[in-house]
Amino acid sequence: METIRLWVTGLASAAVIGAVVLVLTPGGGAEKAVKTIVSVFLISSMLLPFVKGAELSLDTELPDEEEVIQNENGISEAMAEQFEVKLRETIENILSQKGIHTRSVSIDIKTNGDEISVEKVTVVIKKESANNLASAKEILENELQIKADVLLEGAEG
Predict the structure, then answer these.
(1) Alpha-carbon gap, residue 65 to 137, rounded angstroms
(2) 28-44: per-residue pLDDT in tens?
């Protein structure tokens, strides 16, 4: 019922606006063009719900609370996944720029409502970068403000 009321209100508003525009239109050649534009405007206002695929029904269902929570959780999880990917890429790029080659970067992320927090970061560097083990940890702490476990390839358990 609310949908129909909104549609009728919008249509009435469009008619009033069209009438005001027609009253303010000067005569002559411009009058015909303005009448055409107002007509198209009114027809568009009438057809808008159908073009948008909206249903003019008397019974509308609101999503239940569980469905809303599931949607919010899905969005939070998707954001957490994107954050994890970006953080992993950033860690790999920064270490690579410093000549430290990583084998893997694992990130544990926790979502709580709309909050995303990094629980644990573990970086495994390749054996050829073994002498940079301590500097890798220092780089992550200084440049990204991340406390990470930095392990040598083969030593991770």
Answers:
(1) 44
(2) 777 777 788 888 888 88
